[in-house]
Amino acid sequence: MTHRESALGVLTPPTEGRVPPESPAALPGRPDLSHRSRRLLTLGALSLGLVLAAAALAWQALGAARPPGVARMGPAAACLLAAACISVLLAALMRQLDRFARSEASLAERNAVLEATRRRMEAQAAELQTSQALLAEQSAALETTLGHMDQGIMMVDADQTVVVCNGRAMDMLGLPRELMDAKPRFSEVVAHQAAAGEFRLPGALDAAKYDWSRIVTETQTYVRVRPCGHVMEVHSIPLARGGMVRTYTDITERRRSEEQVLHLAHHDGLTGLLNRTAFLQELGQAISMSERLRRACLDPGAELPRLAVLYLDLDGFKPVNDTHGHAAGDAILAEAARRLRAALPSVAAAARMGGDEFAVLLTLGGSAPSGTQPGNTPPSSTPLCNTPDQPEGLAQRIIAAFAEPFSIGGRHCRIGVSIGMAVCPDHAGTPDELLRHADSAMYRAKASGRGACCMFDAAADEVRQHQGQMEQDLRQALPGGQLFLDYQPIVDTTLKIRRCEALVRWRHPTRGLVGPGEFISRAEASGLIVPIGLWVMETACAAACAWPDDVHVSVNLSPVQFAHAGFPDQVAAVLRRTGLLPSRLNLEVTEGLLLEDTQNVLHAMSALRATGVRFSLDDFGTAHAGLTYLRRFPFDVIKIDRSFVQDAAVQPEARAIVAAILAIGAAFGMTVVAEGVETGEQLAQMQAMGCAEVQGYLTGRPQPASALLRAMARPADAGVPQAGASSPGQGIFAAAAQPC
Questions:
Q1: I need a surface site. Which of 155, 210, 416, 653 has the fewest CB within 10 A?
Q2: Do 418 and 452 meet the contact criterion of CB atoms below 8 Å apart?
Q3: What are the start-end ranges of the E strands in 90-177?
């Protein structure tokens, strides 16, 4: 800080920030004054007083002329006068000096204020510079963000001037940069888009979306579809001081994903057909529309549309799927769907109901509202089909489409289709009931030989429902202890019991005794024969342990049991648990088993026979078996069907067949059993022809194990019927009558 000049012309150093201890300014109420200035002033005042005193003395000594009447002043008076002058002069000087000090203090205070102001202004200037730099940085960041954000944004002020429009908004709206750099009005932007054809789609130029008076007062959110196919979600927010901010979000991919999810929710992912849920919805809508048309029709003779449902199931799909794998199965299902579409009218709705089952919905005759959509997208109204031979003709066309072989990895396989049909309102009035009736007709078509079509029949459906109820009851039979076994003896020519065949019976809680011919087929169809057959085998083996060692037990087997994985291990486990020797167990199979899966059956039979288990071929001569099967399969016993045995007495042809079977058995070293021997003549004839063993009501009815034990205790020749007797009601080993 520079020195300043005082009022006396003396340069004084700055006093800011320090006050000398001897300075009067250090005392309260006294102005600040430098030590040097005070000393100079004091010396000057004393010098002036001495000069004046000297002058007074000189004037006295010289006797200067005095004015008249003035007395002569003595030395003392002169000295006093000089002292008084000096005092007056000093007092004046001190007052002046105080004024100078006060002025100097005021000046220093003002300088301090100015210095503080300068520093504050410098700090504010630095803060302003920092704020400007931060603002510039934030502006650059905002500009970068607006330029790279995924959303488009447009800001319009209260004067409708577009003050902000990022590059994304320009790209999404098709706006040129030259137009937006010129800060156009919002109405000019809308006019430019209209001229470019952006609003040519129906409903695109909605007044509510571009009316300025509503834009600045209402928050708006809507979806806009551009002609190029892009879909935008537009969100407009009014600003407090007028104007608005509008954002644009590209939701094209999201809309596609939503449409794909919606498609998958209504369609089967493998075939592209409708799924079960969507088909039921479509069927319900079609039935509702049909009912409304019927109620609204005033002409009783008018032809109103009827709905038909075709229910399809592929024939032979499961073996192919199991053999070649699920990938091959999926390829077959996709090809089946393609063939089904090709065979259907364009307005028919087709669906995959699950697994290898499909369904078709169409309208027969009449008319329906327009607006149906072709293909397999859910139509907005009832599908129409005006082919005159519907639905039977359509079913035949579908069956023909499946006649060509399917190709799987270079291999060809044949997959057929069975079709059931039901019509609304003829057969049902609700979606579930109509579909159930078509499904029932489809099962009837399968039972008739497959590759066929059947219309719903109420009587046949009643039978099927009865079978379904029987299946439900049968599921409770085994755990409920409702099943039991009877045993029918098989005797040799001396009427000695050689083996006993175990026959399962069902004591129904409400229907009483149910014969095996009534429920065994349902058990096989439902797969219940596997646990039931295992129970029969274990129960029979346990009972045989109480018989003589030379009496064997025969157990009938179903092809379903043989197809079950690990069947030989199950048989071995039963024998271990019961303690029965494997050689005393005789498993009876029918010729139909040999046609199912020859290689697997042969492998299972060989594994069991290696343990000592014996096999019988039941009902020989009634199916497709031949000598080839007797050569390939390890049978120990063949049983002549009862029809040949009973006809041998009156028909030479039947007698010749029996003789041939006996000769085959002898040639192959197999025991031959004649079934169905019910009279003495039949027994005598079988004995005369050399048949080793017989089975029938004559030699023993099916009976409980306890009764069988009592029969075994009686002599074998007790009560032998004579030739010519015909009393099937009484057997050699008779027991209480039991239905077989």
A1: 653
A2: yes
A3: 152-156, 162-165
Nearest CA among 674, 668, 688 for reference residue 643: 674
415 touches 437 (CB < 8 A): no
> SS3 letters for 564-619?
CCCHHHHHHHHHHHHCCCHHHEEEEEEHHHHCCCHHHHHHHHHHHHCCCCEEEEEE
Count of beta carbons in the 10 Å neighbourhood of residue 640 = 28
Length of the chain: 740
Q: Measured between alpha carbons, how far is 217 from 233 in angstroms, rounded to an integer?
A: 19
Token pair 């407090």: residue: 240
Cα–Cα distance for residue pair 483/506, rounded to 1 Å: 5
Query: What is the C-alpha to C-alpha distance for residues 728 and 81, in angstroms, rounded to an integer?
Result: 188
Token pair in block for residue 722: 């004579």
731 burial level (CB within 10 Å; 0-12, 13-18, 19+): buried
Angle at 594 between CA 590 and CA 599, to 5 degrees: 145
Using an 8 Å Cβ cutoff, are 637 and 586 in contact?
A: yes
Give me the sign of the Cα torsion angle 522, 525, 527, 530.
positive
Structure token pair of residue 594: 């040999």
Cα(273)–Cα(375) distance, integer angstroms:
9
pLDDT (0 to 100) of residue 723 = 37
**In the structure encoding, which two tokens stand for residue 307, read together?**
């709905």
Give tens-digit pLDDT for 630-682: 777 778 999 998 889 998 888 889 899 999 999 989 988 999 999 999 999 99
CA 259, 261, 266, 271 torsion-angle sign: positive
Cross-strand partners of 673? 639, 693
Residue of 15, 220, 248, 221 lying closest to 109 (CA atoms): 15
Q: All domains of the chain, ordered by start, with CATH?
A: 4-59+75-141 (no CATH), 152-256 (3.30.450), 271-456 (3.30.70.270), 476-713 (3.20.20.450)
Decide if 287 contacts 431 (C-beta within 8 A): yes
Helix (H, G, I), strand (E, B) or coil at 555: strand
3-state SS, one letter per residue, for 29-89: CCCCCCHHHHHHHHHHHHHHHHHHHHHHHHHHHCCCCCCCCCCCCCHHHHHHHHHHHHHHH
Residues 21-58: tens digit of each pLDDT: 444 444 444 444 455 566 666 666 666 666 766 666 66
pLDDT confidence bin for 412, thresholds 50/70/90: confident
State both tokens at 440: 């029932």
What DSSP string describes 267-293? B-TTT-SB-HHHHHHHHHHHHHHHHHH
